[in-house]
Every structure is written in C-alpha cells, then in structure tokens.
UniProtKB/TrEMBL annotation:
Coiled-coil ranges per UniProt: none
Origin species: Stieleria maiorica
InterPro entries assigned to the protein according to its UniProt record, in alphabetical order: FliS, FliS_sf
Gene Ontology biological process: bacterial-type flagellum assembly
Protein name: Flagellar protein FliS
The organism's place on the tree of life at top rank: Bacteria
C-alpha cells in the first residue's frame, strides 16, 4: 500500500515586501513568455503549453492584486496586462516581453521608496497568512 504524504503549505511571504513579490511575478511572467518562444521555435507544443499555463497563471495573479475600480494606475496596468494577453495569443512574444519588462522596471524604480513606506506602515504589509475567506 502506497504511503500518503501530508500536504504541507509553506508561507509565501518569508519576509518579502509587496514590491518584492510583484517584481518576482513580473520576472516569472517574462521568463515564461521567453520559454514559450523557445518552445514555439523548437516546435514543442507540450513544452509550449506548460509555459503558457505558467504565464497565464502569473498574469492572473498580478491582475488579482489590482483594484482597477479604485485607482487609475491599477486600471491602466489591468489594461496593459489584457493587451499583453492579446499579443501573446498572436504569438507576438517580443512585444509581450518588452511591455512586461517596462512595467516591471517602473516598479523596480520605486521599490526602495515602496519598501520604506511599507516598513513605516503607510502601505499595508503582505498578510502573514496565505489563506482567504469567501462570503457567499
């Protein structure tokens, strides 16, 4: 009989700030698109699908953290992410990478300031728990 392993969750936070997490997500999305381009050039549809799924999940994770109804910058980032998805579907990998890199670089430029604001409590820190509640 096969032994069942207990699923253990680890905290995502581990001392990260919000901007650290955001930069990591953009890096992951960019790397996934680069991998998709390589897989497409190699004619490997299984590998392409694997990296495409990773990219789409990462873009959705970024989008899920936005509040486009409350903030114009968040609204514009949401629009840009949507545009990236359209360009990806058209296999325009270079422009996807370029646009995501520009957004990422913009956040990187304000990372020190954002981290300081988070340390001072002006920006809420990441939650200690990676759980959520839903009210139906």
């Amino acid at each position: 009989m096969e032994q069942l392993k207990t699923y253990q969750r680890t905290s995502i936070k581990r001392g990260w700030t919000r901007v650290d997490m955001l930069l990591m997500l953009y890096d992951r999305a960019i790397e996934s698109i680069e991998a998709c381009e390589i897989a497409a050039d190699a004619g490997d549809p299984a590998l392409f699908c694997k990296h495409e799924l990773a990219m789409r999940k990462t873009i959705m994770a970024i989008h899920a953290g936005l509040k486009p109804d409350e903030d114009e910058v968040a609204f514009n980032i949401a629009r840009l992410l949507h545009f990236v998805m359209i360009r990806f579907d058209e296999k325009d990998f270079a422009n996807c990478i370029k646009l995501l890199s520009q957004i990422r670089d913009g956040f990187a430029q304000v990372a020190d300031q954002a981290n300081e604001m988070e340390r001072q409590g002006e920006i809420p820190a990441l939650p200690e728990s990676d759980t959520f509640e839903s009210i139906a």
